[in-house]
Amino acid sequence: xxxxxxxxxxxxxxxxxxxxxxxxxxxxxxxxxxxxxxxxxxxxxxxxxxxxxxxxxxxxxxxxxxxxxxxxxxxxxxxxxxxxxxxxxxxxxxxxxxxxxxxxxxxxxxxxxxxxxxxxxxxxxxxxxxxxxxxxxxxxxxxxxxxxxxxxxxxxxxxxxxxxxxxxxxxxxxxxxxxxxxxxxxxxxxxxxxxxxxxxxxxxxxxxxxxxxxxxxxxxxxxxxxxxxxxxxxxxxxxxxxxxxxxxxxxxxxxxxxxxxxxxxxxxxxxxxxxxxxxxxxxxxxxxxxxxxxxxxxxxxxxxxxxxxxxxxxxxxxxxxxxxxxxxxxxxxxxxxxxxxxxxxxxxxxxxxxxxxxxxxxxxxxxxxxxxxxxxxxxxxxxxxxxxxxxxx
Length: 393
Ligand code: COA
Hints:
Elements: E1 22-31, E2 35-38, H1 39-43, H2 50-57, E3 61-64, H3 71-86, E4 95-99, H4 110-118, E5 124-128, H5 134-148, E6 153-161, E7 179-189, E8 194-202, E9 210-211, H6 223-227, E10 234-235, H7 237-258, E11 266-271, H8 276-286, H9 297-300, H10 307-317, E12 326-333, E13 337-344, H11 354-385
Bound molecules: coenzyme A (COA).
The site of coenzyme A (COA) has 20 residues, from helix 2 and helix 7.
């Protein structure tokens, strides 16, 4: 198949004919907590079994954040790995997007914490909330920003600590989720390829099927919201399952078609890892063999917006993705949201040498020092100057 430049279809695809800028993934990284939780351990907490969980979901074990892990620390680890592979300095980043359903705080954004820790002094930073579709949304936005010329280098992270919002007494949900983070660095290039087409969709009428109702402006935190378990995941598993099997194949077909490709051209599909049966149903509906679907759900469970970048990272590092391959990322999640992207994989630059890696480490150390100094200076300034005057306001 010749180099394609997907066409603009007025339906949300980012395909363009005659583009001069392309957005390539040049770095990738992942971070997982070391603590492994097996199905047998969950069976000690709720009425379930390893056999049931494996048969109905494909999950054997998942990772659980330790006391020192959080969405931001996992995001930072994944980001550092991705920058290392890309051999990009944090100062070169124009934008950092963290897709997450479990942000460090309601605000400030987790992305701003990562920006500060990396010392990415020239980057804007914000969080993106689109449930498990978050990474695909963020990738699409990052690619558009690069293609439009508004940015040259963008860091996209999917990071989650779902174990902190799971109801460990609800066997319908606690078996599914895990913690982790994945990140990619995207960079502008005039070489055709990279993110070719994307599709983003939503249907808010299904919002209550997968929700965390407490803690926002509708139900601010109170003893009642805590007692009623409103700060935990609430899910209608059957309905989400039905929705997912419908949209996964539709979205895949759509982005592939918009890219001027056929399903036969696709070397690998990286689907959101929610349930092996959903992935199998999508493969059946697309007429694709399971060998073309990347699956790692057995080891990590559903890590929401981190699932696709973690799978992408593993697929690249295990040689499942080769230069000039066309791949599809496809996800669904809370919102309801769903989305997909077609990517043409291009050869990537060599990763940082040991010397360059040391230089990166010095930069992170310097960033921490600078951040501490800024905090100190802000406090000192406010002591010396007192409250802000009318003219300062
Ligand atoms: N262990 C044992 N039995 C369980 C169980 C568990 N962990 N969870 C549910 N069951 C029981 C149910 O109570 C039900 O029993 P009943 O027939 O006596 O009422 C039975 O198993 C079947 O329940 P059902 O909900 O139909 O199971 P399922 O095959 O749909 O599997 C999910 C449940 C949650 C695994 C499945 O619906 C799913 O994966 N949905 C999608 C969820 C998802 O992807 N969410 C994230 C979106 S990003």
